[in-house]
Structures are given as structure tokens and as C-alpha cells.
Amino acid sequence: MTIVYRKYKPPQDLHLHLHLHLATQSEQSATGGQVPAPRESAETDLTAIRQLISSDLSEPYGIYVYRYFIYQWPHLCFLAFEQNKEVKSELVGAVVCKLATHRDVKLRGYIAMLAVATSHRGKGIATNLVTMAIEAMISGGADEIALETEVDNAAAMRLYENMGFIRSKRMNRYYMNANDAYRLILPINEPSTVRHHVLSEQATEAQNMDLYL
After folding, report:
1. What is the rounded CA–CA span in Å between residue 53 and residue 129?
2. Overall fold of domain 2-211
3. What pLDDT sits at residue 36?
């Protein structure tokens, strides 16, 4: 078994897809009606991503959520495929992210979705995908990277905390299944409010320790 990683490959007419997506969203908001979605026949990656994530996450997402992230930040979507001689390559992992300004943080990266097929877990695929996403967001100038995960998702918490993410906030009944969530932050640069807070705490602890020496 060979796992091959690559970025999402947008359709050649991605700009048209994005324009239609935004126009559709605007028209739906104005009319409250259902407007035909952009054609998805050529979007094999998007279809596979949606199927994988929908089968894995407890929070259901509509097609517009996928288009929002993937059409606007295609360079921040990374995929893992299993390849062998007998079977055509199969999508077994995906991470979907964005990078945008956020309040008093100059640029915040955001890991919106991460999924690995059940049969391929425990093989480092999630770690590799998140690492590629983090590197891409840092290259794009991210000051911090954020995400949310369910408080009882021990595997996800272990993955992210081992990569340096910090528990920033607990949000009660955050998901549709009424589960609580942790917001996790990976501080990168000085504008990160979490980084400033953590460094301030560390400085205070160091000063307190000096009092006892």
C-alpha cells in the first residue's frame, strides 16, 4: 500500500464556479428560495472529499460549506490517496482550511475539516495532512491557527496538542449533537492573542519562581 499526498486540484473553470457559488448564495439570501447549484460533474475531488468527510464527522455540512472553503482556498486543501496496482487510487484522507483576517489577529489560519478513512487510521495520515496544512498557512503569513473539536474526541485532542495546539476555550453545546467543543489555537507570531497570553503567563510564572530562589 502506498499513500500519495497532493493538493486539491481545482477545475479549470474554478473562477466561474466561485462566481456562481457566491451569486447563488446571494440570491438565496435575497429570495429565500432554492437556486440551482453550479455543475459538479467535473469536480471529482470535491465529491470524494464530501463523501469522506460526511461519513466521518458528527456535524453535517451542506455542499455550500464545502464550496465556501475549497473554492476560495484550494491551495489549503490537502488530500491523501491510497494507490496500488490492483485498485484505482482512493481518497483516504483530507484536510480543508482557510486563511483570513480575524479581529485583532492579522491573519488566522483555520482547520475547518479533517477526516481519515476508518480503515487507514493510526498510520500517520492525519498528522501528515495537518503538517502540510500548517506549513502552507505559515507560508501564507498566518499569525495563529485555530480549530474546534469535540471535547470527547481523545484522538483529535492528542493529535493537535502533540503538534503544539493550546486549549483556548470550551464552548458548551457547540455541535448539533449537543456536544461541547474545545477551541484550539496554535500560536505562530506576535499578533496571536493566545501567544501573547501564554508568554505573559510564562513570564509571570518565572517571576514567581524567582521569589522562591
Report:
1. 14
2. Aminopeptidase (3.40.630)
3. 44
